[in-house]
Amino acid sequence: MKEMLQQIIDQQSQTNSLLSQQNEMLMGRLYPAAGNATEPQRILPNQKPDVLPRHLTVSEVIDYFDVSQATFYRNIKNVLIHPVNKVGNRPYYLFSDVEEVMKHIPAHEKGAWTFKKLKNRLKDG
Fold this sequence. Notes:
Layout: H1 2-30, E1 55-56, H2 58-65, H3 69-76, E2 85-87, E3 90-94, H4 95-103, H5 112-124
Antiparallel strand pairs: 1-3, 2-3
Helix pairs in contact: 3-5
Organism: Sphingobacterium yanglingense
InterPro entries: DNA-bd_dom_put_sf (IPR009061)
Protein name: Helix-turn-helix protein
């Protein structure tokens, strides 16, 4: 009887260790930028993180471009970048599209006027 109990305890401990290894592996896949942490890396204004997620929300795009919400909706949304996915009513944008727009902006220019010029260039050309 004691041997059976010991076998059950050993099996449970092996199962627990396997589950913890799988959990660590999955967390590393879900949150690669955060490493072993259980929270995803947050994008803060005026801070360019090392690794950005593949899909960005509206607020993350606004923080990355460092523009106001009005500028985003007036000059950027559905003109310079288009949402690739919607979850509920929340659009998501590809980071590669956001980077592509940033390649067309000179380093010394920033702000609403820059995005309006890009928007007008797309209309004309």
